[in-house]
Amino acid sequence: MLTNLKPQPADKILELIGMYRADPRPNKIDLGVGVYKNAEGVTPVMRAIKAAEKQLWEAETTKSYTGLAGEPAFHDAMIELVLGTSVERDRIAAAATPGGTGAIRQAMELVMLASPEATIWVSHPTWPNHLSIIKHLGLPLKEYRYFDSETRAVDFAGMAEDLAGVKAGDIVLLHGCCHNPTGANLTLAEWAEVISILQDTGATPLIDIAYQGFGDGLEEDAAGLRMVASEMPECLIAASCSKNFGVYRERTGILMAISETAKNTGVTQANLAYLNRQNFSFPPDHGARLVTMVLTDDALRADWKAELEEVRVGMLGLREQLASELQRLSGSDRFGFLAQHRGMFSRLGTTPELVQKLREDHGIYMVSDSRLNIAGLNKNTVPVLAEAIVKTGI
Ligand code: PLP
Ligand code: TYF
């Protein structure tokens, strides 16, 4: 049987990790996989998470199963973090999932139960795992224009034109903030226009939010999502705790499904629990419990917010330094978009050949679509990258 298997396409982002490790050059720079790194190149355990872990070790009395949909306290804490008070609590069903990826996968499976004819619309470009999960499940897929390769900003006219072709019952996948891979984001006025298109077409939004707190701030990064959730009758949200709580390997995420009225929440909640049971039974608990502890304890929450803010401001500083260094070296403003983009990523907008040249000639690793992870830089490597970009003719 196993001899029937065919090779599967590798994940280009994860492949880079191996290439980087194998490179013997001491001054190599890793701007590949989207993991936050501090100035020393370390992905730290956040202080509040470490403190919560210590408390949990003292207080935890059992590791028996949690609920099929995870712990209600985790749902409440995450709903408050992501949605604030934008939606009545009794309209929201929620289930803990293995990471944000698990939430996206469960969202797709929920769509298969509720709207089997649905086409899933994704931004072009989008996170490659969106595409691979949708294709793996055999769901119809369409792309809407998103990125203007000239300005490196959102091509909103193209996006609105493409979304006008969405049919009732379709799903429109949107990035809540810090678009991966481009770094280009919608303004609030553009979110409002997206809402009006969704209302006109009768499509349902699925918002993937994996970087809340990495862009303009915790509240600011959720503002567009909250507008959608409060104005649409229904909305799906896949939230990841991997980045903003630094709990990547704990696999902590949540799927929220908002019904038009509270009458429908019970059956939606039962379907989320059913889908968890089909795929993995009980979701991972450790990361979800730590996140709940951090969000519900005033001191831990304040410390977490302070550390997250340091991370966010640090990345913004690196963006500004890189943009101004490039302006100085190139004598042009064409890299100004780096300071406008938000989150961990920016798409430089160059060819795979020049990305390869950066790697071969300078030991600088970025994804072949020219996505770079800003957090892979520090004050000393920004000028090195800027010089390499200009020398490479990007
Ligand atoms: N969605 C996007 C856009 C991402 O970049 C990520 C990144 O890791 C995820 C979802 C899910 O992450 P995880 O499954 O590690 O929580
Ligand atoms: O886009 C990224 O780099 C992150 C991390 O299969 C990631 O979202 C990359 C690939 C992958 C899972 C996570």
From TrEMBL:
A GO-annotated cellular component: cytosol
Assigned keywords, A-Z: Aminotransferase, Pyridoxal phosphate, Transferase
Domain Aminotransferase class I/classII large residue range list: 27-389
Cofactor: pyridoxal 5'-phosphate
Alphabetical list of SUPFAM superfamilies matching this protein: PLP-dependent transferases (SSF53383)
Coiled-coil spans in chain: none
MF terms (GO), sorted A to Z: identical protein binding; L-aspartate:2-oxoglutarate aminotransferase activity; L-tyrosine-2-oxoglutarate transaminase activity; pyridoxal phosphate binding
GO biological process, one term: L-phenylalanine biosynthetic process from chorismate via phenylpyruvate
One Pfam family from the record: Aminotran_1_2
Keyword Cytoplasm: no
Assembly, per entry: Homodimer.
Family of this protein: Belongs to the class-I pyridoxal-phosphate-dependent aminotransferase family.
The protein, known as: Aspartate/tyrosine/aromatic aminotransferase
Organism: Halocynthiibacter halioticoli
